[in-house]
Amino acid sequence: MTRLVRASFLMSGLLAATGCTSTLVRAAGGESTEVFRAILGATPGREISPREATRIAIARAGVELREAKGEAGVAVVRALAPCASALAGPLRERAKLRDEVGALAAESLLDAGVADPMEYAANAASEDPAWRAVGARAMTLGDDGAAPPPCELGWNECSRSGASRAGRAANVRNAALLDGHANVRRAALRAAADAADPRDVPALLDASRRDPDAEARSLAIAALGKTASVEAVLGLADSWPHATEDERVAIVHAWAASLKREGRALCGAGVETVGCVAFRELWRGVEAAVGKPSLVAALELVASTAGETPAHPLFVSAVGIAFNAIERAIDEGPPALRVVAIERAPLNHAVLLEAVVAAGLSEDSAVAVAALARLAADDTPVSPAERKAARESLRERAGRDDACAPLAVEALVRMRDSSVKPRVFRDASSKDAEDRRAAAAGLARIGATSEALALTTDADATVRAHAICSVLRSGAR
Question: Per the structure, how many domains does the chain have?
Fold first, then answer.
């Protein structure tokens, strides 16, 4: 009996015994990709409810994780990681196997905050770098007010020393930042961001400047922003002259995170609060930098001070300079910079709204589509007629057969506009796996759940995993 014939018999039997919903869910969790594809195809045109689609996706994820091995298995777990909250059960089961895939499954649980970090803490002493990274990622306990303990050993040894748990975690994090494996250092840096412990600042500053891995340096900068300390803010300012453009953008985001954590920019009376220092550095970033770092500093400064009452002339001056920088970027910047400014500009300010309206007529396709997408959004302060006109213009551009069309399709997908379904569905049969991954995300977002589920039976495991996660994320909205 062939697999497809077997699938046909299985379909008939389950339909008779349990009803259609149970059929797909049970088959999703217990059948091979080929058999499940046949069963799913035996119910063409049937609408699948969001609840049922979620159950099917979770069941398929369990199958994928059970079969995940080697590099291909690592790719599957990475694709499923954004949905770790919904997949805690299957990921936990896979994490019981002591291989690289299991370690990544455990890290995904920790990243999503759905596992007790102490459950994996002892792995910090593992000889396997993949599991040592899990242990480093588990070190999320932050400053508890205790003095830094003297213990400089592993988690188990420190546990016996009587040092505070948060202090032990800080020691293990700091030691992991010197590990020879980049994935261990990255894991420790993500843990440091969660811990937001000022005791980490010296080690984080060192990592942000000297780590040979670019991703690790960016993670260190982000973690410094979470500590919201004057030492971190000023340390990043010292790093600015020698930082790359990407690192400068990361530094700007870190300053903004510090300002946000502080609550507001309290300046004056000789008080150097974290908020005041971070505000000052953002202002300097707007004035001293060029290109994307300057624009992002302006955007962050305006966003972080929204709703505040100006208490000082310098405050008013800084915000005014930031608004001018944003307007200038929308009107005159290079296309990539104009798109960033258009997408993030606060359009409750008339001058910036007018600039975006003008950008909608740009000859540059990316700029025009970005502007039209902002104008078509429900939260943009324009009239219903203007909003409708912008959306119709996007639909017209999406129907073209040129380089502009994919940009317009992507914008309409973000708006959950089902008019682009035929275009997105066409990519589901592309020979390019990346096109099929994008199609899965697009179909799920516009509500074409049945079509997105079909891609959970794709020949490529990463496409299947992306489709599973896309369905789960669409159901969570």
Answer: 2
